Amino acid sequence: MRVALFITCVNDTLFPGTGKATVTLLRRLGVDVAFPRAQTCCGQMHVNTGYREEGVRLARHFADVFGGYDAVVVPSGSCGAMVREQYPKLAPAATGAVVPKVYELSEFLIDVLGVTDVGAYFPHRVTYHPTCHSLRGLHLGDRPLRLLRNVRGLDLVPLPGAEECCGFGGTFAVKNPDISAAMCADKVGNVMTTGAEVLCAADNSCLMHIGGTLTRQKTGVKIMHLAEILAATEVTEP
Amino acid sequence: MNSRDLILARVRGAVAGAPDVEVPRAYRGVTGDATGGATPAGGDRLIDLLAERLRDYRAIVHVVPEAEIASVVEEALTRRKTGRLVVPDGLPPAWLEREPRDREPYDTVGDDPELSAADLDGVDGVITGCAVAIAETGTIVLDAGHGQGRRALTLLPDYHLCVVGAGQIVAGVPDAVARLSPERPLTWISGPSATSDIELNRVEGVHGPRTLEVVIAR
Amino acid sequence: MTRTFLGMPASALQRSFPSNAAKAVRDSQLRFNLRKATHTIRDKRASVVGELPDWEELRQAGKAIKDHTLRNLDRYLVQLEEAVTAAGGHVHWARDADEANRIVAGLVKATGETEVVKVKSMATQEIGLNEALAAEGVTAYETDLAELIVQLGDDWPSHILVPAIHRNRAEIREIFQERMGEWGRPAPEGLTDEPRALAEAARLHLRERFLSTKVAISGANFMIAETGTLVVLESEGNGRMCLTLPRTLISVVGIEKLLPSWRDLEVFLQLLPRSSTGERMNPYTSTWTGAAEGQEFHLVLLDNGRTHVLADEVGRQALRCIRCSACLNVCPVYERAGGHAYGSVYPGPIGAILTPQLRGLDSELDRSLPYASSLCGACYEVCPVAIDIPQVLVDLRAKARHPRAERLGMAAAGWIFNRPERLARAQRAGGRLRRFVPKRLPGPMSAWTDTRDIPDIPRESFRGWWDRTGGGDR
């Protein structure tokens, strides 16, 4: 099986650690993952901000880059949902073949590899935020939680109001800053009630948003992508 | 162009070339059972469900053998100290049979000739039958037929006593829609008048009858 | 297209959604009221929807029935007209708000009456009927408790189902005490803020009015083409009062409220109550066909921009809406911004797609509405007729005019993303300049850094690491 990593532009540029962790994890599970260097961005920012033509161009580019692989792994629920939910409406002819082969990381681990225990060790108190596009776009369900529950040493605490949006929403955070900040403040409040050391999610964009508030408020709570926790095997500092 | 023709022309222009749509009706239909189980419609289970769902709306509910309807009705009217009771045409007289007692009897008022709104506002209660009752939703449907009267009769008095026969109870909404006739003015009643307009908390009792009492005959 | 009127004061229309919302989000009383109310109803809805094993099948049927109706709307409207007329009713057609208001005012004046009672209706809110009638010397009395609160408080509705959701019990008590006397029977002495007492005050205030008023105006939740039947769902009994007691009944209904057959009610009478008030069934539903029980009945069919929406392949799904308001109750943006920020009688997610389609994207406010969402998808999930609100929002965003700075930024990003080597170069530049990125950003990006830190830009991008190490092998 030829497996490609779609790193996403946000991870590539701002969160390379998530990409490295994804590669480490997949190799540990015996997957020889390729990184097609021609990849750039799924086009979500353009489409969701109202620049459809540019988005369609990027969707076609995505199909060109990944068309030859059997599976494409994305460590992002949001970009995964963009491909799976929006490409069929934007550029059905060009992307029809590649779309069904795209998997968010936890889907790939559980549905394709059939693994729920990835052999990770992470002795910390963690709470998980199911981001909107993971939850309502891709319908990941409890896949990330099943993976986290099998991490040795990890104390998983439920997040109150987990299903509510953190207020990121891409350009929403800039176009409607007051509402976005109010939503984030409520999310942070909920995170603080859990007493968790680490807030985990399958999307770095949402984590960047919540994390930006967590550090601004000097809460001491760290953010970590799901891949980074699943890649940890020895005592890893969060 | 007149507005009728203009609107119709706009509609035709707007949908020209759009594909039509088949309606999938995979939901529980007319033969469906209220709780999705395999039990046949009717019977005690539906009666119990109807009673439970009506009580959820804070209706007062009695489930009695048919022979005891009159005594339950009399007890209810005595308890409420009903003075004047509207009785629509065609109400089974057996429901109102009374044994001589030492209490003050209530007066019955008919609607022929029609009572004025003010008259109706002045009576204490109304007793009716119904057309259909829906177990799953705790709903009673009146169709202004025999023993129910026109719509205002069950609207202005503050107390509505409704007698439901076991054979009138259906499992779900599709069964009720199939049994009812659209030519008749219908009133679907699910509990007493209520509002959720203040902080979205349900409060029983606004403009319609503030007390709904239901006698279900087994 | 002439600008469609949607029943809101000019003041609410002058500012964009973000600035309206910024004001609302700082009103702690409003925030508290909205949070409490929306969370209450959200939980109730989830519980009664969860009871039905076939909810998804009902939802798909509801969606398909509406789509089929819209596709054949011309045929069904004509069928409805025939059926209503055959049952002794009179049918009128109104292309816009002005025409609808003129028709209704004419019908009321023909009765010689100067007062009408009203059932809560979105269509008459939308066309500003009360104001139009007042200009003709006719007083319209709202009888729904929440509408009464709004009317007495000289206020604007902020929710589809519960127009006074922004008011709490203490505020309602104050409005009743101060204003009921000006409109009719004053509030009882010693009125408390107990919801039961407030409901009782409304009952007493309106009772005499119901008994004496000769003309009523309503909307309708559904119209059945096959039979000519109209359907109104309500809770309090004020609807029954208006529909039953007056001699003349005038119903103003949007043309999209049609259902083909009587049987279709078996779907919608399950979808609507559970989605709106979160009850298995609302307390009262009335259905009538033509001139019921000797009443004079007029039906005014309203276009007011609907055919314009119908012409849009993506946007027309908004016409499936049955006004349940589940999308408002679950929306994190609505919960914090409140309904007034949307500048329309249709607030929340459905308003964000309906208002700009009905009114156009000409004003700053209407252009900002498609962006009044984080695209979290909660609205689509709860919609009983499966309107893909995020999809329509994104589609409208593509139609709206964009600010120049944003256009330039998006073009630059697009240029970079079109070639991976450009992206790599930009990342290397970012890595070199990382120490110079300030904690507080200027311009539009300050909106982010006002409350949030920006992440540290890494020295090396992922692709830089991959190139250097061969994916960690070297």
UniProtKB/TrEMBL annotation, chain A:
<dbReference type="Pfam" id="PF02754">
    <property type="entry name" value="CCG"/>
</dbReference>
<feature type="domain" description="Cysteine-rich">
    <location>
        <begin position="126"/>
        <end position="210"/>
    </location>
</feature>
<protein>
    <submittedName>
        <fullName>(Fe-S)-binding protein</fullName>
    </submittedName>
</protein>
<feature type="domain" description="Cysteine-rich">
    <location>
        <begin position="3"/>
        <end position="83"/>
    </location>
</feature>
<dbReference type="InterPro" id="IPR004017">
    <property type="entry name" value="Cys_rich_dom"/>
</dbReference>
Automatic annotation (TrEMBL), chain C:
<dbReference type="Pfam" id="PF11870">
    <property type="entry name" value="LutB_C"/>
</dbReference>
<dbReference type="Pfam" id="PF13183">
    <property type="entry name" value="Fer4_8"/>
</dbReference>
<feature type="domain" description="4Fe-4S ferredoxin-type">
    <location>
        <begin position="318"/>
        <end position="387"/>
    </location>
</feature>
<protein>
    <submittedName>
        <fullName>Lactate utilization protein B</fullName>
    </submittedName>
</protein>
<dbReference type="InterPro" id="IPR037171">
    <property type="entry name" value="NagB/RpiA_transferase-like"/>
</dbReference>
<feature type="domain" description="LUD">
    <location>
        <begin position="79"/>
        <end position="301"/>
    </location>
</feature>
<dbReference type="InterPro" id="IPR003741">
    <property type="entry name" value="LUD_dom"/>
</dbReference>
<keyword id="KW-0813">Transport</keyword>
<dbReference type="InterPro" id="IPR004452">
    <property type="entry name" value="LutB/LldF"/>
</dbReference>
<keyword id="KW-0411">Iron-sulfur</keyword>
<dbReference type="InterPro" id="IPR017896">
    <property type="entry name" value="4Fe4S_Fe-S-bd"/>
</dbReference>
<keyword id="KW-0004">4Fe-4S</keyword>
<feature type="domain" description="Lactate utilization protein B C-terminal">
    <location>
        <begin position="398"/>
        <end position="469"/>
    </location>
</feature>
<dbReference type="InterPro" id="IPR017900">
    <property type="entry name" value="4Fe4S_Fe_S_CS"/>
</dbReference>
<dbReference type="InterPro" id="IPR024185">
    <property type="entry name" value="FTHF_cligase-like_sf"/>
</dbReference>
<dbReference type="InterPro" id="IPR024569">
    <property type="entry name" value="LutB_C"/>
</dbReference>
<dbReference type="Pfam" id="PF02589">
    <property type="entry name" value="LUD_dom"/>
</dbReference>
<keyword id="KW-0479">Metal-binding</keyword>
<keyword id="KW-0408">Iron</keyword>
<dbReference type="InterPro" id="IPR009051">
    <property type="entry name" value="Helical_ferredxn"/>
</dbReference>
<keyword id="KW-0249">Electron transport</keyword>
<keyword id="KW-0677">Repeat</keyword>
